[in-house]
């Protein structure tokens, strides 16, 4: 029954040269067009902080910031982001100084296994950048693209509310 | 999962010429649906034509005769939070924000939203028959697990639903889809853009293979005073609608002067009923009249077992959302029923 | 002396910084040179035989190294026994790529190995298979006539079958003053940790492997690999320092481990295999079950008969069971009982323990039935539980080592505001919402497994604690560090707990809420030995003031050993090691349950959950607006991480009651929503206000720490409390989980 995916293109496909600024550093990769930004980060640039949970845009674990906005790296092709500025979880802290959201996650025990955490943190920073969430209910709604199977939801929202309302975020 | 070539189009002309000469090429904008389908072996493009850099597609601008033009390449989130959309077309804003997640809305384009494919389990599984995927192979959804499937406008070949929230609002607002192609430009009324499955369930809409959506026009009337979007689903966010309703009212006192009601999650396209809307005009905006309208909208609705509940649910939702539209401030995040 | 104790204090997770910065490495994330990538091919057929495999198109793709299938796989161990893991149910273990037979849909049928992930993934779809399909059965309801008791085996020790009937159940039930009879249906659930199952195998040469694996049991998987592939135990090292959730799915070695190791040995190269999300639905799940409940009481609410008959799914190759039927008798006295657990073998993969296996399924039925009974009796649901309260486990007739369930009931009821409840269904409203209050009891076993721990005091004052356990997000690292620090009077910074490594001393897999009591007790035992050795060494020093001191005469604090009678007399632990010429002083000891003493007791944790729901009066949508769960689980080592365990499992309860279900299309014989978009687990928007209380429960009998484990108890009561609250709100009893909101219209 299955459709066998076929390579229908006639010419051989050459690797594309892609340059992005990742966590403030310019990086160039020579990459096939079908490599996702997620696999590019993890396999090609050894930035494994960004997680693969579903690879289909259904869990949010792969969330990164692209030009300041939160996106899903699993549904993004690396080639589509030539010239973009990407921030992954590895680029959130300034050296040893944790971002207030990171510290709040620790303080509120906002994770257990830690696997969804990088996505939650990038998403939370994206949410704060957007500035669209006021109430706790709105924060919950706008964070709902990030699943947590351990059930650390309460701590995650507490952490975000504290940073949002506590003025420790600029 | 096949390999594909990739090319960025510099302008609309180039985009059209690239696709015109390659039967198996696909445009990619946000990629949120296409890349997903490709990973599931359902889309099999030989080449992706990246249209993210097409300046013509990337604007939201007011139209001379009133109304607003939404560039097809503008992201869903940027559309929902655009000041004019928030102000003049809050129904559209609410509907967009009820769909997907913040991340996906930051990626997904307006044009792409119209072209989303169904989330039918059987369509999404390349190993099982599906008339939409492989015409003539059969439809296991009809007597399978069809909780999420259509109750209106189905055919013996397909009972899939169109999953968009944004399009439910666009249907209610009588938007117009602007298209360009090798032979020039054309426009399609929103109601005529998507199609019912009939005997060609493989075709979701009336866009031709080598055409590109450039923008979506909203008429001047945005129903900003009385509107509501209600989305009912198996969790409070980040799930597709089982039933959704967009209601736009123009009231004089409590009398309905004008009304648009569109349903999502129930058919192969956003569902409208002229009969129901005509009935409501001149009537009092109350539960009783919304109930009669609901019956008119749901005329001919038919369940397939697991989705039988949608008929009753849709009726309740239409009535409730009509009442919510009287008090738009009552709407909650995620288009949940009012408190 | 208690000044610097850390046990009982809320300590933030010690690995927190690694997790929030992305530095924590999971199984698929180790940078390994010359790494090959494996991609699994899954069977599209539910039952039958592979009649032909043509790999030529796949092999022709540049970058493809090998396609392994049953036709060309290397020779493997032959006997089932060699494939047995510590958690294998009775039966024949599934052996990947063993022969041409297809036993279930999604079964791995080939592994493509390529230079990069994308090539392997593409090539996985370029293999041409031919199948001979056979008729299959995957629907529990359609096959109830095949129900039979499970075979007994190795794993039966932890999961005994229900006890024989007592009294005259049928007569008692027939003649009872008040009775409830109902049938509950539970669907399939999948564990779905967010981390995909993955293995990275480093081929070290000379029959030696280092394996980074996603598992709850490093030693379990080490033995499994060594047995199958004929390797020496010491040459197989399994590491799993970070595990991205597991919830039971990592209790058994999964097939990606097998395939990855097979490929690495065959190709003599480093290989990684990562499953995709759809494949995460192709091994192990919580089985669907049908439960027939018959409870009866006298007019005063005293239970007279308890009947609980369960039929659950298993595979056609292993007899999986979970503890279900006898829980009611562990809570409530009744002279007449009838408990049965039967299984129906189907063409699916073997089910497996999933967070609170059996308990969460059974307690839903039990506590909903109790609620229904309370309405028939017109007795408050909480009151009915108190009427039937017992400090003795009625199933075994043994007293509990401790049972602060009464305190749980009362404290949670108080905090929740249970007294404000109008018992009449549909009587409480808030705007458009019907409001319901519901409550339920939870009970779970307090397990302890044998464990070995090595303690090593180093010259720099650092205490190294070695044990093979994992930390699947439970807080094990933090909790063990606390225990060890207190035992030797050290600060947390001076303790280094090293874990997640099969080379470390023995630990069972991390399941059954048992690790705190297992490894924790072993630390206590080893610390006792280490203190003795340190004292002995100190006593050897010239004119040592410790010469005549016995174990009881000294205490350890702030890195020093003091004389109790004169605390000013002290020596630093560093100085003791320095005196030992800088050579660390170490000890390895076993901690184990005191079987002889504990034989006279029943061991369990308890909980009481109180839930408020809002149900929309028109469209039926349900929100768990708030919930309070009080837990009696003995000593709580770290209230912060323990609270997270309870909160997390309460959310699992919300999920089980309202969201998650794997949909089986029995005509196709496969799961249709094998993805996280359509397999719904709660999102942030679904979670209301959740509160946790730890009831004070001193247990001096159970083990040296007085701990009982908190990993699962928070889940067991919640689904029933939610269902009961929904009944209270709407007047509707829904016997099938998850409850779909449209049923409430």
Jot down its keywords.
heterotrimer, A: 170 residues, alpha+beta, Ubiquitin-like (UB roll), DNA polymerase, domain 1, 2 domains, five-stranded mixed sheet, elongated, C: 745 residues, Aldehyde Oxidoreductase, domain 4, Aldehyde Oxidoreductase, domain 3, 3 domains, seven-stranded mixed sheet, 31 strands
Describe this structure in words.
The complex is a heterotrimer of chains A (170), B (339) and C (745). Chain A has five helices and five strands, in the order E-E-H-E-E-E-H-H-H-H. Chain A has 170 residues and is α+β, with helices and mostly antiparallel strands. A five-stranded mixed sheet of chain A has the order 2-1-5-3-4, with helices on both faces. In chain A, a hairpin with a 2-residue loop joins strand 3 (63-66) and strand 4 (69-72). Chain B has a five-stranded antiparallel sheet. Chain B has a four-stranded antiparallel sheet with strand order 9-10-11-12, sandwiched between helices. In chain B, strands 1-3-2 form a three-stranded parallel sheet, covered by helices on one side. In chain B, helix 5 runs antiparallel to helix 8 (166-172), helix 10 runs antiparallel to helix 11 (287-297) and helix 11 (287-297) packs across helix 12. Chain B is globular and about 55 Å long. Chain B starts with a strand and ends in a 13-residue tail after the last helix. Chain C is 24% helix and 25% strand. Chain C has three domains: 16-22 and 449-592, Aldehyde Oxidoreductase, domain 4 (2-Layer Sandwich); 32-135 and 194-246 and 250-281, Aldehyde Oxidoreductase, domain 3 (Alpha-Beta Complex), CATH 3.90.1170.50; 145-189 and 285-447 and 599-744, 2-Layer Sandwich (Aldehyde Oxidoreductase, domain 4). Chain C is built from 17 helices and 31 strands. Chain C has 745 residues and is α+β, with helices and mostly antiparallel strands. Chains A and C meet through helix 1, helix 2, helix 3, helix 4 and helix 5 of A and helix 1, helix 3 and helix 15 of C.
């Amino acid at each position: 029954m299955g459709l066998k995916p076929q390579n229908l293109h006639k010419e051989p496909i050459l690797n594309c040269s892609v340059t992005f600024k990742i966590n403030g550093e310019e990086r160039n990769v020579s990459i096939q067009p079908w490599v996702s930004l997620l696999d590019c980060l993890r396999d090609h640039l050894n930035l494994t902080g960004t997680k693969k949970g579903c690879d289909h845009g259904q869990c949010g674990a792969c969330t990164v910031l692209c030009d300041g906005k939160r996106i899903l790296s699993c549904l993004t092709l690396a080639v589509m982001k030539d010239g973009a500025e990407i921030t992954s979880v590895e680029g959130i802290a300034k050296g040893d100084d944790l971002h207030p959201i990171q510290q709040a996650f620790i303080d509120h025990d906002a994770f257990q296994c830690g696997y969804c955490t990088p996505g939650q943190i990038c998403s939370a920073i994206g949410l704060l950048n957007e500035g669209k969430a006021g109430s706790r209910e709105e924060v919950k709604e706008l964070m709902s693209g990030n699943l947590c199977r351990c059930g650390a939801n309460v701590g995650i929202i507490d952490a975000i509310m504290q940073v949002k309302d506590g003025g420790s975020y600029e | 999962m096949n390999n594909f070539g990739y090319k960025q189009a510099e302008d609309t002309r180039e985009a059209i010429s690239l696709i015109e000469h390659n039967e198996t090429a696909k445009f990619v904008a946000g990629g949120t649906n296409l890349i997903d389908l490709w990973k599931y072996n359902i889309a099999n493009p030989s080449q992706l034509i990246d249209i993210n850099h097409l300046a013509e597609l990337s604007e939201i601008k007011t139209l001379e005769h009133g109304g607003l033009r939404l560039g097809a390449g503008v992201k869903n989130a940027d559309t929902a939070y655009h000041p004019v959309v928030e102000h003049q077309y809050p129904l559209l804003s609410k509907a967009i924000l009820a769909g997907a997640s913040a991340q996906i809305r930051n990626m997904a384009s307006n044009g792409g939203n119209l072209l989303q494919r169904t989330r039918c389990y059987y369509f999404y599984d390349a190993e099982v028959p599906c008339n939409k995927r492989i015409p003539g192979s059969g439809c296991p959804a009809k007597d399978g697990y069809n909780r999420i499937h259509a109750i209106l406008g189905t055919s013996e070949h397909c009972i899939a639903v169109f999953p968009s929230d944004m399009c439910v609002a666009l249907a209610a607002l009588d938007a117009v889809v602007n298209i360009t192609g090798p032979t020039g430009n054309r426009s399609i009324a929103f109601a005529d853009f998507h199609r019912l499955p009939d005997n060609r369930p493989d075709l979701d809409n009336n866009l031709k293979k080598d055409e590109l959506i450039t923008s979506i026009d909203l008429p001047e009337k945005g129903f900003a005073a009385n509107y509501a979007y209600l989305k009912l689903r198996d969790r409070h966010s980040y799930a597709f609608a089982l039933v959704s309703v967009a209601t736009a009212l123009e009231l004089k006192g409590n009398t309905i002067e004008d009304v648009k009601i569109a349903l999502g999650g129930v058919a192969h396209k956003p569902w409208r009923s002229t009969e129901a809307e005509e009935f409501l005009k001149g009537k009092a905006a109350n539960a009783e009249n919304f109930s009669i309208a609901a019956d008119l909208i749901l005329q001919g609705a038919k369940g397939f077992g697991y989705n039988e509940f949608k008929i009753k649910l849709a009726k309740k939702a239409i009535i409730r959302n009509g009442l919510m539209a009287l008090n738009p401030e009552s709407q909650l995040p995620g288009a949940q029923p009012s408190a | 002396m208690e000044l610097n104790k850390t046990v009982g204090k809320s300590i933030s997770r010690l690995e927190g910084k690694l997790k929030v910065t992305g530095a924590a490495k999971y199984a698929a994330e180790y940078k390994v040179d010359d790494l090959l990538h494996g991609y699994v091919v899954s069977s599209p057929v539910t039952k039958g035989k592979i009649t032909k495999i043509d790999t030529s198109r796949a092999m022709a793709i540049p970058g493809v190294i090998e396609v392994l299938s049953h036709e060309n796989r290397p020779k493997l161990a032959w006997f089932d026994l060699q494939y047995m893991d510590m958690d294998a149910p009775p039966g024949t273990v599934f052996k990947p790529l063993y022969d041409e037979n297809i036993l279930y849909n999604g079964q791995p049928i080939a592994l493509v190995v390529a230079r990069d992930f994308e090539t392997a993934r593409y090539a996985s779809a370029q293999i041409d298979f031919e199948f001979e399909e056979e008729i299959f059965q995957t629907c529990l309801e359609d096959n109830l006539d095949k129900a039979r008791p499970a075979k007994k085996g190795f794993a039966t020790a932890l999961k005994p079958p229900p006890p024989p009937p007592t009294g005259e159940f049928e007569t008692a039930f027939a003649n009872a003053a008040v009775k409830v009879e109902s049938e509950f249906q539970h669907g399939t659930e999948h564990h779905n940790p967010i981390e995909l199952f993955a293995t990275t195998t480093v081929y070290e040469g000379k029959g030696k492997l280092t394996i980074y694996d996603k598992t709850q049991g490093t030693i379990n998987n080490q033995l499994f690999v060594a047995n199958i592939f004929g390797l020496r135990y010491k040459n197989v090292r399994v590491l799993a320092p970070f595990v991205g959730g597991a919830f039971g799915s990592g209790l058994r070695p999964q097939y990606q481990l097998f395939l990855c190791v097979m490929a690495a040995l065959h190709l003599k190269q480093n290989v990684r295999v990562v499953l995709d999300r759809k494949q995460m639905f192709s091994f192990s799940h919580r089985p669907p079950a049908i439960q027939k409940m018959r409870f009866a009481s006298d007019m005063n609410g005293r239970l007279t008969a308890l009947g609980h008959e369960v039929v659950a799914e298993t595979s056609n190759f292993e007899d999986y069971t979970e503890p279900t039927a006898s829980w009611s008798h562990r809570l409530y006295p009744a002279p007449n009982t009838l408990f049965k657990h039967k299984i129906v073998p189907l063409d699916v993969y073997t089910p497996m323990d999933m967070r609170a296996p059996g308990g969460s399924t059974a307690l839903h039925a039990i506590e909903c039935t109790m609620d229904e009974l309370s309405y028939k009796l017109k007795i408050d649901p909480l009151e009915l539980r108190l009427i039937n309260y017992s400090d003795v486990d009625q199933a075994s007739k043994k007293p509990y080592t401790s049972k602060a369930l009464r305190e749980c009931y009362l404290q949670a009821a108080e905090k929740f505001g249970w007294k404000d409840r109008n018992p009449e269904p549909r009587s409480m409203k808030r705007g458009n919402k019907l409001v319901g209050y519901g409550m339920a009891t939870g009970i779970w076993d307090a397990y302890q497994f044998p464990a070995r721990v090595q303690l090593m005091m180093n010259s720099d004052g650092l205490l190294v604690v070695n044990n093979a356990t994992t930390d699947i997000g439970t807080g094990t690292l933090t909790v063990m560090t606390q225990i060890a620090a207190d035992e030797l009077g050290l600060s947390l910074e001076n303790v280094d707990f090293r874990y997640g490594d099969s080379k470390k001393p023995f630990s069972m897999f991390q399941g059954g809420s048992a690790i705190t009591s297992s490894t924790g007790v072993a630390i206590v035992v080893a610390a006792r030995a280490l203190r003795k050795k340190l004292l002995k060494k100190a006593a050897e020093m010239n004119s040592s003031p410790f010469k005549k001191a016995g174990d009881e005469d000294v205490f350890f604090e702030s890195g020093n050993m003091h004389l109790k009678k004169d605390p000013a007399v002290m020596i630093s632990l560093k100085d003791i090691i320095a005196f030992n010429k800088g050579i660390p002083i170490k000890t390895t000891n076993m901690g184990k349950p005191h079987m002889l003493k504990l034989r006279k007791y029943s061991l369990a944790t308890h909980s009481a959950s109180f839930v408020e729901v809002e149900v929309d009066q028109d469209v039926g949508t349900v929100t768990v607006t708030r919930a309070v769960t009080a837990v009696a689980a003995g000593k709580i080592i770290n209230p912060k991480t323990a609270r997270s365990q309870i909160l997390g499992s309460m959310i699992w309860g919300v999920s089980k009651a309202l969201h998650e279900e794997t949909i089986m299309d029995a005509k196709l014989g496969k799961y249709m929503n094998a993805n996280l978009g359509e397999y719904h687990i709660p999102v942030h928007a679904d979670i209301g206000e959740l509160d946790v209380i730890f009831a004070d429960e001193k247990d001096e009998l159970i083990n040296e720490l007085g701990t009982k484990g908190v990993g699962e108890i928070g889940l067991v009561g919640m689904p029933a409390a939610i269902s009961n609250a929904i009944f209270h709100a709407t007047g509707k009893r829904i016997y099938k989980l998850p409850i779909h909101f449209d049923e409430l219209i």
